[in-house]
């Protein structure tokens, strides 16, 4: 059986995996001495396969690694290598979702079958001032839907913005698009909640959203349009919020001032107002620049998302290997 060094090279070369995700999945118990034992080498391959969603039988010899959940995902706005990238992302997400759900308490409440975005917003605003990123994360965890922000990815090219998964009638959401401000992440999360509440996912399926804010959406299918409308209605109260725009060349500072005014008067988070302006006018440079005026300081949103996740994950339910891997994928200790 090949050495661990050669095995690692094969995973990167033949499976197309990013070195960082291979390192994250590599068990801490591995040592140079273990490399002299065929049984340890076999255990290594099963450990890697379980974490990344690979067929372990294809790792025991020199054949090309094969993904278990090759066809589980539906990809939105995908422009990459279909045969090379899609199976890796799909299987990685399903395998990680299984680990995460194993450490997430099953909520006693079920997803409301007939509750639309407007009703959900009304319910949330009963004890919240606005519906923003923090409120959406609290909602998701309260419904037993874990939300984490990925810091390690299956491929060297980080292709996706977010991913929602259904496993045994339970759901997981992965955020992947970096942001220094909460509003873009709030929209991505609301969009994934839209897929879940609109029943776009059957057990054993996932949806991978690859487009970013401001990307052309000419090829958006019905599910994407529905999830976008759900997100906007949940965040603003209107599936297609229209802002009254006066004059040309409004500055980011002016937009920020108006967005804060709308937040006070209409309980729509100011950053979401700025994004709505971007969606409506396609003037994304001004919309994004206004976020620096709306929020006091930029900060890595992924850290805030994963701090909440760390408090909600039941780490004691995971074995040492799974815990180490999940922490690595979440960026390690966030304090």
Mind explaining what this structure looks like?
With 335 residues, the chain is α/β, with parallel strands linked by helices. It has 3 domains: 4-66; 69-238 and 300-335, no CATH class; 241-298, no CATH class. It has helices at residues 4-14, 19-25, 38-52, 82-101, 117-124, 133-142, 182-197, 222-236, 252-266, 270-281, 284-294, 301-312, 320-329, and strands at residues 73-76, 147-149, 162-167, 170-175, 205-209. Helix 7 packs across helix 8 (222-236) and helix 9 crosses helix 10 (270-281). It is elongated, with a radius of gyration of 21 Å. The mean pLDDT is 90.
Secondary structure: helix percent: 40-55%
Give the amount of beta strand, in percent. Answer: 5-15%
Strand order of the largest sheet: 1-5-3-4-2
- The helix tally amounts to 13
Work out the number of β strands.
5
CA radius of gyration: 21 Å
